[in-house]
From TrEMBL:
The protein, known as: Cupin-like domain-containing protein
Domain JmjC: 98-278
Gene3D superfamilies linked to this entry: Jelly Rolls
InterPro entries assigned to the protein according to its UniProt record, in alphabetical order: Cupin_8, JmjC_dom, RmlC-like_jellyroll
Short name of any one Pfam family annotated for the protein: Cupin_8
Length: 343
C-alpha cells in the first residue's frame, strides 16, 4: 500500500462534507455549489465498489467481465518516478503511451503488485460507454438532465500534477484511496504552470512537486497553499470539483479505480475557451505593445464588458454575432473562423 508523501497535506483544511440522500438532493447541491464538496458513501452500493472492497483482484475481474475486446491506451512510467506522471529533465514525458487489451494490462499490474519500485501503469479518462458493456448501467450516479461524459481511471499508485478542467466534475472513488488537493480558479499564477502545447494529458499542469515543493524556485506556491483544500477519499466517496478549479490527484493504493462525470452548463455549440486562448497567443501576444493594449481594450469592449453595451446602438435584427449567440449564428461564426484559419 502506497502512502502519501511528506510535507504540505496535514496542514491544509479539508473540503466540506455534505449529505445527498437522493438524486434531487444531489442536483440541488450541484446547482448551488461554488466550491468543492465531498459526499461520503455516495456510490458505496456500486457492485464495482463492493468487488474492490473484497480485493483488488475481484475488482479487476469485475471490470474484465464488462470490458470490450479492444485496445486500451495505457501510460507506462519508469520504475524510479514514484508514480509521478510528469516531465523529465528535458521537458519530454517521463512515461510511454502504449496500447494493449485490458487482460494484458491487468496481468502486468498483478505481476507488479507489491513490488518496490514497480513501473507506474495508468489508464486515464477511458470512455465507459465506448470501452465497457453494462458497466455504466450497474455503476452510475443519477445526474438528472445533465449530459455528462462518464470516464474511468485505473492504475497503480500515481501522482497527477495539479491541473484544471473546463467542465464541472463529479469524481467517484470506486477502488483504492484518493487524495485531491484543490485550489480556486484564480490561483493559477501561483501554481507555476507548464507549457500549454506540451502537456501530459491536454491541460497545462503545475510544475511544483507537491511532495517536495521548492519555495526558493516557486515562492508564490506558498500563497496558493494559503487557499488550498484537501480531500482524502475512500471507496464509495465522491468529490464535486467546480469548473476550472485546480486539482492535484493521487492514487494511494496498489490498485485504484475512479469514475468521473464531466458536464458543462453551457450549450454544446459554444466554442471552447482554450481554443480562444490559443488563437490569442497566435494573433495578439507578440504584437507591439501599443497594438496589444488596443486589442485588450477591444476584448474588454466586446467580450468582457457588459453583455449588451457593444451592440446597444444597433437595431435588434442587425446585431449579428454581437447579439446572444444561437446555434445558427454560432455555426456561421465557426465556419468563418475555419475559413480564416485555413488560409
Amino acid at each position: 500500500m502506497a502512502e502519501a508523501g511528506p510535507g504540505i497535506f496535514g496542514a491544509l483544511p479539508a473540503v466540506r462534507e455534505v449529505e445527498a440522500g437522493d438524486a434531487a438532493a444531489l442536483d440541488a447541491l450541484l446547482r448551488e455549489a461554488d466550491a468543492p464538496f465531498v459526499v461520503r458513501g455516495l456510490v458505496a452500493d456500486w457492485p464495482l465498489v463492493q468487488a474492490g472492497g473484497r480485493s483488488a483482484a475481484e475488482a479487476r475481474a469485475y471490470l474484465l467481465a464488462h470490458a470490450r475486446d479492444r485496445a486500451f491506451a495505457v501510460s507506462v512510467g519508469v520504475e524510479t518516478q514514484g508514480g509521478r506522471l510528469f516531465y523529465d529533465d528535458g521537458m519530454a514525458m517521463n512515461f510511454r503511451m502504449l496500447k494493449a487489451g485490458l487482460p494484458e494490462i491487468f496481468a502486468r499490474i498483478e505481476e507488479c503488485e507489491g513490488q518496490a519500485g514497480a513501473p507506474t501503469i495508468y489508464l486515464g479518462s477511458v470512455d465507459i460507454h465506448d470501452y465497457f458493456d453494462g458497466l455504466h448501467a450497474a455503476n452510475h450516479v443519477d445526474l438528472g438532465e445533465r449530459e455528462a461524459l462518464a470516464s474511468i481511471w485505473i492504475g497503480t499508485p500515481t501522482r497527477i500534477a495539479a491541473h484544471n478542467d473546463v467542465p464541472h466534475n463529479l469524481a467517484c472513488v470506486a477502488v483504492g484511496r484518493r487524495r485531491f488537493t484543490l485550489f480556486p480558479r484564480e490561483q493559477f499564477a501561483n501554481l507555476y504552470l507548464g507549457p500549454i502545447d506540451n502537456t501530459p494529458a491536454g491541460r497545462a499542469v503545475s510544475m511544483v512537486d507537491f511532495h517536495r515543493p521548492d519555495l526558493a524556485r516557486h515562492p508564490r506556491f506558498a500563497d496558493a497553499l494559503a487557499h488550498a483544500l484537501v480531500a482524502d477519499l475512500s471507496p464509495g466517496d465522491a468529490l464535486h470539483i467546480p469548473a476550472m478549479w485546480w486539482h492535484h490527484v493521487e492514487g494511494l493504493d496498489g490498485f485504484n479505480v475512479l469514475v468521473n462525470y464531466w458536464w458543462r452548463d453551457t450549450p454544446r455549440w459554444l466554442g471552447h475557451p482554450q481554443d480562444a486562448l490559443n488563437h490569442a497567443l497566435l494573433a495578439i501576444r507578440d504584437l507591439p505593445d501599443d497594438e496589444r493594449a488596443h486589442w485588450r481594450d477591444m476584448f474588454d469592449h466586446y467580450v468582457f464588458g457588459a453583455r449588451d453595451a457593444a451592440a446597444a446602438h444597433l437595431p435588434q435584427d442587425g446585431r449579428g454575432v454581437l447579439a446572444p449567440l444561437t446555434p445558427d449564428t454560432a455555426g456561421r461564426l465557426r465556419a468563418y473562423l475555419l475559413r480564416q484559419l485555413s488560409r
